[in-house]
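User: Before I run my own analysis I want an independent prediction to cross-check against. Here's the chain; please return only the C-alpha cells and, at the end, one sentence I can use as a sanity check.
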Amino acid sequence: MAQDAFVMAHTEAIGIHNYAGTTGGIGDAIAGSAFSSMPFWLTEFSTWCGGCDRGAPNPDDWSFARGNVEQLLGYLDAGAAGAQNGAANI
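Assistant: C-alpha cells:
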C-alpha cells in the first residue's frame, strides 16, 4: 500500500484491529516510512472474551471494562490517534 502514491494520497489514516493490547509496531513502521505523519487508528479492540467467538455476550463487569480502558490508554500512549472499541457495553 505504501508503495502506491495514488492510494496513499487518498488515505487519511491507517486502521488496525488488535485484541492483544499491542499495536504490533505499526507506529514505528509508519514513522520509518515516507508517510511518517500518517496517523493510525485502532478500528476495533477489546479485552479477550473467551466465549465471544462462540456467541457469548461480552462480560458485563468492572474487570472487563477496566481491561478495555487499560488497552485504550496503552494504544493512545503508543501513538494511536483514535480507537473504536468492539465491546458495545462499555
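Sanity check: The radius of gyration is 15 Å.
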